[in-house]
Amino acid sequence: MEFNFEEGEILLINKPLTWSSFDVINRFRVFLKKNQDIKKIKVGHAGTLDPLADGLLIVCTGKFTKRIEEFQGQEKEYTGTFRLGATTPSFDLEHDIDQTYETTHITPELIYEAVRKLTGDLMQVPPVFSAIKIGGKRAYKFARKDEDPGLSARLVNVREFEITRIEMPEVDFRISCSKGTYIRSLARDFGLALGSGAHLTALRRTRIGEFLLKDAWELDELMERVSSLK
Predict the structure, then answer these.
(1) 56 to each of 47, 104, 146, 159, how far by Cα in Å?
(2) Beta bridge partners of 92
(3) For residue 60, with 0-12 CB atoms within 10 Å meaning exposed, 13-18 middle and 19 or more buried, which class applies?
(4) 3-class state of residue 195 by DSSP
(5) DSSP state of 110
(6) CA distances from 83 to 50, 64, 190, 202 (A)
(7) How far apart are CA 130 and CA 110, in angstroms?
(8) pLDDT by residue, tens only, the chain of 230 residues
(9) How does strand 198-208 pair with strand 54-62?
(10) C-alpha 135: how far from its chain's center?
């Protein structure tokens, strides 16, 4: 396998847990400049993953960065875990639990009914701790000051919502959804639909369009492979 990064490559990377998407891009860009002696090159990704999520990240180089918007618009698939009975301000583990709720009333039947309610076209309010811009300012900057960024509901589509494990208070899932869908917001809405609370404790992106996580490189392995071809 040969690479032509300046002309353009589409690379599938398994983003490590705790890394930001920018961390992956920045490390690979620095590697190309130093290892491949490429003085200037465009490197971008097609869809941010939160630091507390891992999984498929599409990285484009050179002229193929023009295709980023095309990939961003494709359907995504995720697997992960909701923890019932507690909420956090960010709807995930980035912040500590701020409120707890009763869960003894939650049955498998109630869980599957909540799934039905949250499948299809939905009007979803994004998390306040997100990078969405409001008047040129990121929403999370408002949230960190306990200010309301005034986020509006957006139309998203959850085509598939499958429960793969119920072991209270944890529920595992697989979701196929449209661009712009926040799984953290689904966690919040799932808890509300159950008459309780919920937050996201694990998330992995397994697919973007026809690109699959199983075909992705570990970043270190990719860089070793590129180095061996010099």
Answers:
(1) 10, 36, 32, 19
(2) none
(3) buried
(4) coil
(5) H
(6) 18, 39, 10, 9
(7) 29
(8) 789 999 999 999 999 999 999 999 999 999 998 888 888 899 999 988 989 999 999 999 999 999 999 999 999 999 999 999 999 999 999 999 999 999 999 999 999 999 999 999 999 988 866 566 656 656 556 546 565 666 679 999 999 999 999 999 999 999 999 999 999 999 999 999 999 999 999 999 999 999 999 999 999 999 999 999 87
(9) parallel
(10) 24
Would the pTM of this model clear 0.90, i.e. be above it? yes
Q: How far apart (Å, rounded) are the C-alpha atoms in residues 199 and 81?
A: 9
Residues involved in catalysis: 50
CA atoms of 55 and 176, how far apart (whole Å): 14
Contact 181, 91 (CB under 8 A): no
Q: Please name every residue paired with 10 in a beta bridge, in sequence order, or none if there are none.
A: 60
In the chain, the domains with their CATH numbers are 8-73+210-228 (3.30.2350.10), 76-208 (3.30.2350.10)
Pairwise CA distance, residues 140 & 23, whole Å: 19
Q: What is the CA angle 110-120-17, rounded to 5?
A: 80
